[in-house]
Amino acid sequence: xxxxxxxxxxxxxxxxxxxxxxxxxxxxxxxxxxxxxxxxxxxxxxxxxxxxxxxxxxxxxxxxxxxxxxxxxxxxxxxxxxxxxxxxxxxxxxxxxxxxxxxxxxxxxxxxxxxxxxxxxxxxxxxxxxxxxxxxxxxxxxxxxxxxxxxxxxxxxxxxxxxxxxxxxxxxxxxxxxxxxxxxxxxxxxxxxxxxxxxxxxxxxxxxxxxxxxxxxxxxxxxxxxxxxxxxxxxxxxxxxxxxxxxxxxxxxxxxxxxxxxxxxxxxxxxxxxxxxx
Length: 278
Fold this sequence. Notes:
The structure is a single chain. By secondary structure, the protein is α/β, with parallel strands linked by helices. It has two domains: 2-78, Alpha-Beta Plaits; 83-277, 3-Layer(aba) Sandwich (Rossmann fold). It is built from eight helices and 13 strands. The strands form three sheets. It has a seven-stranded mixed β-sheet. Strands 2-3-1-4 form a four-stranded antiparallel β-sheet. Strands 12-13 form a two-stranded antiparallel sheet. Strand 2 (28-38) and strand 3 form a beta hairpin. Helix 1 (15-25) runs antiparallel to helix 2 (56-66), helix 3 packs across helix 8 (241-264) and helix 7 crosses helix 8 (241-264). The model has no long low-confidence stretch (mean pLDDT 94).
């Protein structure tokens, strides 16, 4: 069988040697290995793809025991097992459509367990793909109850992570803390000075020359979570607000899907306030 093991710990001598030694003890072979040391935090991270004749439980027990002296954070996932994703949307469909399209092509290694929305607009699209659509009304009076319902769904469906595919509601601090490192959002990051409504119209008025998007982890601090993926496009004075919106949508859907794929393949490590992405 094949599996991915990730390791994160304080940087110290002998980590790679310890991993290669224990993989051999598991009757295993390393087919791919990536590692990085963040000197600012003295943190070592490593992603290792292993082939072995043992079961995942056997390999997990052996590796965890042998590496215990490093005091590491370890994860194990069989490459046959896909992470379960819950997608949240409001009215815009471009990011959702991209994820659905890539999954249908078998280019997005996730299982979408359902789609949550605070509007009914995208129900026909979601149900046409044979997925469960759940409408959860959210307002200032019922926010706690709405998030409690959402947490119940996450628990019931064994959700590994949440994708905010243009979900236009702010999640509570408590909710973000409970799911730290498991919520991915998309943001028009290269317009940081244009807050509030119609950021692309504001950008047009200021004559911007670059627009872009950032996929990041959600934290209690709005749009300040560790960055996963980014991209930009150069524009000119000839671009209308509608042109900027169209270009922005294209960047947003590509960047979000890239971030989701990185997460699904165990390629992201949160180190301090930033990420290491293999």
